[in-house]
# Entry
Amino acid sequence: MKKFSARRIAVLGVLLAMASVLFVVESYIPPLLPMAPYVKIGLANSVVLFVIIGFGVWDGLIFVLLKNAITALAATPFVLPFNLAGSLCAYLAMAALYFLYPKVSLVSISMAGAILSNIARTCVAVLLMQAQSLYIQLPFVCLFSVLAGIVIGVLTTFLIKYLPERLTNFS
# Structure
């Protein structure tokens, strides 16, 4: 079990603020897929993947839940189901792949998270709007997810490479 200290909680708090700011900044970017305005690159997922790697599965889950609670304050309540479904699916995919298959690259892990996140968001859109026809956009959403996953995987690799190791070493 990892040691809980004020320093550890402070670092997680700073990372949570970083992820929340990335989410808010990204929410001001116009939709990259006009037919699916809820699909985003997911810049905050680079911080989520960093937390999963540096702090573990349980801290990652708490991090994702807190990130969604905080960012719900910055967005309209309508987007909360999209964000929560997408974030939880991405988290589950990334955490499972990282810990069950340690030789899988961070780019591949990120792509899986992005694909499942955007599929979950599409499913929420279908449920909320009661429009089965939205499933027709899934091939485009998945293609976009692969590209977004590459971007997030590379960003996470840079975070791991350039952030000081003492940031996650609490011994």
